[in-house]
Amino acid sequence: MKISIITATFNSAEKIDLCLNSIVSQTYTNFEHIIIDGNSSDNTIEKIKNYPYKPFKIISEEDNGIYEALNKGIKYANGEIIGFLHSDDFFANNEVLQNIAETFKNNKNIDAVYGDLEYISQKNISKTIRKWKSSPFK
Fold it and tell me: Which of 23, 38, 89, 99 fits a 20 to 30 Å CA distance from 48?
C-alpha cells in the first residue's frame, strides 16, 4: 500500500531538515514524498536536492498559497493513501507511516486517520508547548 506524503514549502530552508529527517527515518518504505514549493527565494530547493535520499518529487513554482500547493500535491500523488506533513513539522516517531498503513490495511471501512498533535518550542524541540488530543469522529 503506497503512501503519498505531500509537503508544502515556501522559504523553508531553516526548518525543513526535521521534516526530511523524520520522513527518511520511517521504517515503512513504500511511500513517495511530493514537495510543492511556492518558488522560494532562499535555498530551500538546493537543500532538498542535496538531501541524501531521493524518493521525492519537487515542483517549485509560484502558487496562491498553501491550499493551492496541497491540492497541486494531490494531483501529482500516486499513492492509495495521501497525507500531509508541512515543512516545519515532523513525525513523532519512525513508525508513523507503518501504523497508518496497517490501520488502512486492517480496517477496510475507514476513509481517513488522524492523531494527536504536540506543538513544540521552535528553540527547543524537546519542549512541548501545547497538546491537542484527538477524539473519535464519524
Answer: 99
Single-letter amino acid, residue 51 = Y
Counting residues of the chain whose pLDDT is more than 90, the rounded percentage is 64
Whether 55 shows a pLDDT value over 70: the answer reads no
Nearest-angstrom CA–CA distance, 12 and 90: 13
Cα–Cα distance for residue pair 76/45, rounded to 1 Å: 18
The kind and range of the H/E element at 71 are helix 66-76
Q: Maximum distance among all alpha carbons in the chain? A: 44
What's residue 113's pLDDT? Answer: 84
Residue 118 has pLDDT above 90, yes or no: no
Q: In sequence order, what are the residues at sequence separation of 6 or more whose Cβ sits closer than 8 angstroms to the Cβ of residue 38? A: 8, 9, 10, 60, 61, 62, 63, 65, 69
